[in-house]
Design goal:
Elements: H1 2-15, E1 45-46, H2 49-56, E2 62-65, H3 67-80, E3 84-85, E4 87-88, H4 95-104, E5 108-111, H5 114-123, E6 128-131, H6 138-146, E7 152-155, H7 158-170, E8 179-183, E9 190-192, H8 202-215, E10 218-222, E11 227-229, H9 233-249, E12 255-257, H10 280-293, E13 301-303, H11 307-310, E14 314-324, E15 327-330, E16 348-353, E17 368-374, E18 388-391, E19 399-402, E20 423-427, E21 439-441
Parallel strand pairs: 1-20, 2-20, 3-13, 4-5, 5-6, 6-7, 7-8, 8-10, 10-12, 12-13, 15-17
Antiparallel strand pairs: 2-14, 9-11, 14-15, 14-19, 16-19, 16-21, 17-18, 18-21
Length: 448
C-alpha cells in the first residue's frame, strides 16, 4: 500500500491534482479478470472448443461444459443399473453439474461433508443423501440426520457406531429408521486402489454387523473396488467377501452398496497399444449377475458412480505461454486442473488448437513428439510427471484442448500463487465428435 501511495503522489506531482479516481493506481487484487460465467444461463455457447478458443483468445484456462453429454452418460448408467444410482459428489460438485444431473433424473447423491449436503440440496431439495464417508465429525453426523434427513451412513469402526448412536439418541430418532453400511476392506486392480485408508477386515466387519444389529439399526454392507477399475473380476472378489461377512454374521442385510470404480473412456499413450475399454452396460450386467450368484438377489443395491458419469462432459482449453525446446509452459498445472498429474496413471486425450494469427509454423505438423509440461505457478514442483505428445509445430500462443477432464479437476483446484481457473463456456459438440485428437496428454485424474 505504501508503494501505491508513492505512485499516486508521483502522478499528482507530474500531472497536477488527480480528480479522476479511475486513474489512481489500485492493488493488483482489484485487477483480476472476471470469469466469463457466473450462472449457467450466462455462459457463452460455442459449437466446439476450437470455436471458443479462437473467438475468446483466452489467456486464462477455460472449462468447456457439455450438459447434454453429462445427461446422456448419467441416464445411460442409471438405465443399465437396476438398483439406486447415487452420484459421487466429490468427483465434481459444481452447481451446474449437480443441477444438470438433478434435471436428468438423478435423485440420490453420495456425499461426504456438510458442504456437499448443502450443494445437493440447493439444486435438488428432495434428493436422497447417502453419507458414505466412514469417518465423520460428531457435529456433522447430527447435522446430516437433523437438517438434511440423512438416513444412510457408512462406517468401519465401533467408535463411529457410538458417535452415530449418540446423535440418534440426542435427536430422539428410532434406530430402525437408520441404515448403517459397514465398509469392507477390499483390494483389487484399478488405477487407484482405495483400501489403504478405509475398510474393516472381514472378521472385524462381522463383529460390527452384529453390534449394529443388536442396537436395532438396519444393517448394510458397502465396498469400493478402486477408481478406474482395470480388472472387472475385482467386483466378484469384493462380493465374495461381502457374502462371507453376511453368512458369518447371521444378521439380516438390508442394503448392498457396490461403490464406484466403473471406468470412463480416456486416451492412450501413442507409443503403446490402446487398451480395451469395457462397455459400461455390460460391466454393470456382469456385476449384477455376480451379486445374484453370491446370494444378494434379494438385497436392494446402490452404486456410487462418479468418473464414468462426469468425465466426458468437460474439456479444458489451456494456452502455451512459452515453448522452450522440448518443454512447454501452460497456464494450468498441478495446483489447478491438473493437480494430481504426478502419477500419470490415466492418459487424457488432447487436441492442439494452433493460433490462426500465427502464420509461421516451424516443424512438421504430422510429427508428434513428447513435450515436458510445466505449470503456471512459480513452484518448481509444478511440472507434470508425464509428457504431452503434440505435433512439433506447437508454439507459444497456441491452445491445447484437454478432453475428458470432468472428474477430479475442478474439485481439486487451489488458489496457489493467485492462479485459479474459473472461466466456463458451454460447448454443444462432444469432444470425440470435434475431430481426431492429434495428440495425447499423459496426465491423470483422481479417485471416485
Amino acid at each position: 500500500m505504501i508503494l501505491l501511495e508513492l505512485l499516486n503522489l508521483t502522478f499528482e506531482r507530474e500531472h497536477g491534482p488527480n480528480r479522476d479516481s479511475n486513474v489512481k493506481f489500485a492493488p493488483l487484487a482489484c485487477r483480476q479478470p472476471e470469469p466469463f460465467w457466473r450462472n449457467k444461463s450466462d455462459m457463452d455457447t460455442f459449437k466446439t472448443a476450437r470455436d471458443a478458443a479462437f473467438a475468446l483468445r483466452p489467456d486464462q484456462p477455460v472449462y468447456c461444459f457439455r450438459p447434454t453429454v453429462l445427461s446422456a452418460d448419467a441416464l445411460a448408467f442409471k438405465s443399465a443399473f437396476p438398483g439406486k444410482t447415487a452420484y459421487a459428489v466429490k468427483t465434481n460438485g459444481e452447481p451446474m453439474v449437480l443441477e444438470t444431473l438433478a434435471k436428468a433424473g438423478i435423485d440420490c447423491f453420495d456425499v461426504a461433508s456438510p458442504a456437499e449436503f448443502a450443494a445437493v440440496r440447493a439444486v435438488a431439495p428432495k434428493a436422497e443423501l447417502l453419507y458414505t464417508h466412514p469417518v465423520k465429525a460428531q457435529s456433522d453426523i447430527r447435522l446430516g440426520l437433523e437438517t438434511y434427513g440423512v438416513r444412510v451412513l457408512a462406517l468401519d469402526h465401533e467408535d463411529e457406531v457410538a458417535k452415530i448412536l449418540r446423535a440418534v439418541h440426542g435427536l430422539d430418532l428410532d434406530p430402525e429408521e437408520i441404515t448403517l453400511l459397514v465398509r469392507l476392506a477390499v483390494r483389487g486392480h484399478a488405477a487407484y486402489e482405495l483400501s489403504k485408508k478405509f475398510g474393516a477386515a472381514p472378521g472385524h466387519a462381522v463383529e460390527l454387523v452384529q453390534r449394529i444389529a443388536r442396537i436395532g439399526f438396519r444393517v448394510g454392507l458397502c465396498f469400493h473396488v478402486g477408481s478406474q477399475v482395470e480388472d472387472t473380476d475385482t467386483y466378484e472378489r469384493a462380493l465374495a467377501s461381502a457374502a462371507w461377512v453376511r453368512s458369518r454374521s447371521g444378521a439380516p442385510i438390508t442394503l448392498l452398496d457396490i461403490g464406484g470404480g466403473f471406468p470412463a473412456p480416456y486416451g492412450h499413450d501413442p507409443r503403446q497399444k490402446a487398451p480395451v475399454h469395457p462397455d459400461t452396460a455390460a460391466l454393470i450386467a456382469e456385476v449384477v449377475e455376480e451379486a445374484r450368484e453370491w446370494g444378494f438377489d434379494d438385497v436392494p443395491m446402490v452404486a456410487e458412480p462418479g468418473r464414468v458419469i462426469v468425465a466426458r462432459c468437460f474439456s479444458l482449453i489451456v494456452r502455451v505461454l512459452l515453448k522452450k525446446g522440448r518443454r512447454i509452459y501452460i497456464n494450468d498445472g498441478i495446483w489447478a486442473s491438473l493437480s494430481d498429474s504426478w502419477t500419470g496413471k490415466i492418459t487424457l486425450p488432447a487436441r492442439l488448437l494452433p493460433d490462426p494469427a500465427r502464420r509461421r509454423h516451424n516443424g512438421d505438423p504430422q510429427k508428434v513428439v513428447a513435450f515436458k509440461v510445466c505449470g503456471a505457478t512459480c513452484d518448481s514442483v509444478d511440472i507434470l510427471s508425464r509428457p504431452f505428445f503434440l505435433p512439433e509445430t506447437v508454439d507459444t500462443g497456441d491452445w491445447i484442448e484437454i478432453g475428458h477432464i470432468g472428474a477430479y479437476s475442478l474439485a481439486l483446484r487451489t488458489r496457489f500463487n493467485g492462479f485459479y481457473p474459473d472461466t466456463f463456456v458451454e460447448v454443444t459438440t462432444p469432444f470425440e465428435a470435434a475431430g481426431p485428437a492429434e495428440s495425447f496428454a499423459s496426465v491423470e485424474t483422481m479417485a471416485d
